[in-house]
Design a protein that fits this description.
Blueprint: H1 2-23, H2 34-62
């Protein structure tokens, strides 16, 4: 259980650092590419939620 908590904390820290790094970059063509950005973000959420639900199901199954 402790290993899982440590992995989650490490992933959160890595995600925060990468998000902060990307937030510093500006995109001059953001208005033109907003549809593409929203599509990518939607796919990221779909994949992340799917993997999370699978991990939860595996965790519950192994209890």
């Amino acid at each position: 259980m402790m290993v899982s908590i440590i992995l989650v904390i490490i992933l959160c820290i890595i995600g925060g650092i990468l998000t902060w790094r990307e937030a510093g970059k500006s995109d001059e063509d953001y208005d033109k590419s907003s549809k593409r950005n929203v599509t990518r973000l939607t796919w990221i959420y779909i994949i992340t939620i799917g993997i999370s639900l699978l991990a939860l199901a595996l965790y519950i199954y192994n209890l």
